[in-house]
Amino acid sequence: MTSRKITCYKEGYGGLDKRDMLVKKPRKETRTSCLAHMIISRQSNGKFSVISFEEKHNHPLVHQSLGKASLGFTKRDHKNYLRDKRKESLQYGVARSLVNYFEERYEANFLNAWEEILEKCDLKDNSWLKNTFAIREKWSMSYGRNIFSASMQSTQLSESFNGSLKGYLKSDLDIVQFFKNFQRADDDKRAN
Q1: SS3 180
Q2: Which residues belong to any copy of the FAR1 domain (predicted)?
Q3: What is the pTM assigned to this prediction?
Q4: How far is CA 27 from the centre of its chain?
Q5: What pLDDT digit, counting tens, does each position of 56-95 carry?
Q6: What is the chain's Cα-based Rg?
Q7: How far apart are CA 162 and CA 152, in angstroms?
Q8: Residue 127, Cα to own-chain centre: how many angstroms?
Q9: Segment holding 52, helix H or strand E
């Protein structure tokens, strides 16, 4: 991050409601085009500093003691948001959503462990490791969990399978013989 602008929650204006004529209970306008903001920027020495600050709001400030009434959204908005988040997380069904969740966790754990090792061993600038990391989908188990490989590594799988098939398949076989021989190769592979 080199810079960030932090604005008042009432910055800008809400867009026009396309259902305007159909709305029975219109939402209260919460934005007032407030210009209050703060811009933070990273300096050349790596430290952050405030480079712009506008403290004047064009609306009364909300006091914390006002509670839920001052949130700027309704209970219905909150319920709709939660419903949409649940729907989004389950759009592929419960089972697939669980698989996605665990795949993301494995991936995150892998990335955290990788960063930790680089930091611990002072290898952040190692070009070989950078190149290896760039092709992590090819070698990291966290990225290959949805690929069946019978517990073989990718090169081992390819060499082994090619070697096995050479004994069963020949280029002059017709389609029926090809599938019979392929089935026999598959059966033998499973038996061993």
Answers
A1: helix
A2: 2-62
A3: 0.34
A4: 32
A5: 888 887 655 555 565 667 788 888 888 888 787 777 777 7
A6: 29
A7: 13
A8: 26
A9: strand 48-54
